[in-house]
Amino acid sequence: MIQIGYTKIVANEPVDVVDSTIEDDMPAANAALATLQTSLSGRTDIDTLFMQQYVGEDDEDGNRIYNKFAFLDPA
Amino acid sequence: MATKIRNSAKTFVVPALPQPPTEYNASYMYNKDLVLRLYFKEIDEALRQALQFDTSDIIDGSIPDSKLEARYLRKDQNDTTEYTLTVGGLVVDTDTLYVDAVNNRVGILTTTPSEALDVVGNVQATEFIGDLRGAVVFKAKAGEDLTKGDVVYISGISGNTTVVSKADANDSAKMPAFGLAAITVSNNASLEVYTFGTLSGIDTSSYSEGDELFVGTTAGALVSTAPTGESSAVQKIAKVTRSHASAGSVKVMGAGRTNATPNLNNGNIFMGDASNIATTVSFDTKVGDYITANPITNAQLAGSIENAKLSNSTVSYGGVQLSLGGADATPAFDLSDATNYPTSSLSGTIATAQIADDAVTNTKLADNSVGTTQLGDFIITTNKLTTNAVATAKIADDAVTSAKISGPFSSKHAFSTTGTQSISTTSAVTIYEPDIPAPPGGNEATQSLNAAIRVRFYNSSSSSIKENHQWNIKVAIKSKTNAGFSLGTATYSSSPSSYNAWYYVSGDKTSSFASNRGGVGTSSTGANLGAFVGVYYDSVNDRTYFRVSKFPDATTAYNGVEVFYSTVNFASSGTFVNDLGFNNQYVTIGSTTAYQTIELPLVFSFGRSTTATETRIVFDHVSSITNLSTVITSISGYVENTV
Predict the structure, then answer these.
(1) How far apart are CA A56 and CA A63, in angstroms?
(2) ipTM, two decimals
(3) How far is CA A58 from the centre of its chain?
(4) Could you tell me the pTM of the whole model?
(5) Euclidean distance between CA atoms B152 and B192, whole angstroms
(6) Which of B56, B198, B233, B365 is deepest in the core (most CB within 10 A)?
(7) How many CB pairs under 8 A join A and B?
(8) Lowest-confidence segment of B144-148, B355-359, B470-474 by average pLDDT
(9) Burial per residue of B341-350, b for 16 or more beta-carbon CB atoms within 10 angstroms, e otherwise
(10) Residue of A nearest to B616 (CA)
C-alpha cells in the first residue's frame, strides 16, 4: 500500500499530509504524485512531496509504520 | 303545293253531326231545309291533325318542271320575266345557316358570326387557299390516361385513328413527341393533339413567360431545362406565352423531331461507325485503342524521349551498367558493377588516400604479409579495430603499457565537509548532496558511494539521561527512469515473516541489484510494488534468491510470474528515492549533560549508469529531540565510477 502526500511547513515545523492511498502500483503512484505536484504548484509552504509504503511493519503500539522512499521537490 | 297524301291511315273523318243548339227555335227548325247550316264541332283540330305531314308522307324525288306552274319567279302566271330573289336576312333551321345582313356575315351553327364566315364545328374541304390562323391539331385516341397539356408521342394506330401516349425523353421508344393533349381523357378516349399553335387553359405557373419547354424525362412532362446526358433525347416543343396556374398558355412548335445533335457525355466524342452513323465513344478509350493498334513510329516523333519515359534507362555491358541521362554524366563511366576487371589493366599506383576505410579486408591479406616492422608508430588507430579484433593471445607479454591505456577503470571523486551542521528538527534534513560525475567517454560504469558520517549527540538535561533515541541516515539517488529490468520468472521459496518472502530466479542476477535499495514489481513500470530487502546467489542450483517485503501478499504476489527490479522503485525520473533505511539507529546517553559521538558508515552501490547520478544524504530524527542537540561534525568519503 502506497501513500502519496506532502510535507508542509506550519509554524516552522514540518507536517506530513497524506493526499491519497494507492495499492502497490507504481504507475498509478507516479501519476498521482505528478498530479499532486501540479496541484500544489506555486505553494510556498510545501517542503517536499513524498511516497511512502507500508511493508507490514508496525510499531510497539500497533500503528503502521510507513517507510518514505521517494521524494519530489515542489514545482 | 305539289304534295300528295298517301297515308291512308290518316283518312279525314267527318265528325258526327251534332244536335242543333238550343238557341235554334222551332221556326228555324222548320225552315232548316231552306238553308244548310253546318256546324262541325272540333273540326279545326281534326283538320290540323289530318293535314300534319311527316317526311314519310312526302314522296321522295323531285317535282318535274311539267308539274310546276312556272320555273321562275313571276308576278302572275302570264309573266315570263325572270327576277332575282333578294333576301335581307336568311335563317335556316335556327342556326344551321344564318345570314347576318347587318354585318354582312354568315354563320354556320352560330347566329352571331364574328367573321365573314364563322363556323362552329369542324370544316372539311378538299383544299384551302389562304392564310391560316390558329392551332393545328389532329384527332387521336389516347393510349393511356392523359391530362390536358401532356406531351405525347405517336404510340400506334387503332383502325384509322392515331394512338398517342405520354412522351419520355429518357425512352427512345417514346420519342419524338408530336404535340400536347388538348383535353384530359381516359385510356382509349378520343382527343385532339396540338401539334402547332397555342394551347390555352393549362397550368404554366412553374414557368416564366418566354421559357422554352422541352420534353422531360418524366413521361408526359414538360421541363424548362433541356435534359442532359446521352440517355436523354433533346426536343424543344413549346414556348410559354402566358404563365398562369389555370389559364396559362403555350405555343406548340417543333413537334415530331428530336435534336439532330443529341446530348454528349463528358469526355465522349461523336464518331462514325461501320454503318457510317454517328455514335458516341470515350475519347480516352478510343485514342488509347488507336495508339495501341497504331504505335507511334519514329518518323512521327519530334524532339526526344526523356529517360523517365523509358522502361529501361540503363545499359549493361560486360558487367558494367551505364545509366542514361545527365545524372550519370559524372563520372562518365562507373566501374562499381564491373566484374573480372583484370589487374593487368591497372597502371600506376593506388594511393592510400584512394583506399576507403575498411576497403582492404583480412581476406585480402596473406598471413604475415604485413610485418610489424612495416607498421609505423600509431599506424593502427583504435577506429581501425573492431570489437575484440585483437585477441589477448595476440598481445605479447608487456606489450601493452600503462601509457597505452586511456581512461580509468575506476574513478573516485572525493568529498568532505569541514564545518558542522546542527540538526534541530525531527523532520528529515538533507545534510549533503554529493553528485557522481558521468563516466568518461560515455562508458557504462557502476556508480557507488562510500562515506562516513560522524554525529555528535549531547544530552543537555541536567537531571535525566537520554535513552534509546531513534534516528537514521538515508542515502537517496535521483531516478532517471521508471523502467525496471526483467529478472525472469520468480518462484516462491520461503517466508521468514508474514510480510517477507524469499523468491528465486534462474541464473546469477546479483550484478543487477543495488544493495539495500530498490523495488520489485510484476511489470517493467512497477505493478505490485514490493520493497527489495535482500539478495544472494546459490551456485549449487544456479539461482539468485531475493527477498521482498510486501503486505499482505508477499508470499504469492510474485510466484510464477515475470518479475522486474528497479534501483529507484520504478519512480518517475526526477524523484529522489531512498535506500531502505527504515531500520533506525538507537543512541543512549547514559549521563546528564554528556556527549555521545557516533560514526556511521554509508556504503552504497547504485548500479550501472552512463550519466551523472545525483545523490542526497538525509538525516532524520525519529523520536523526540527534547534535551538533545545533534551536530553533524564530519562528512567525508567518495563517489565512484567503476568501468
Answers:
(1) 10
(2) 0.95
(3) 18
(4) 0.47
(5) 11
(6) B233
(7) 99
(8) B355-359
(9) eeeeeeeeee
(10) A71
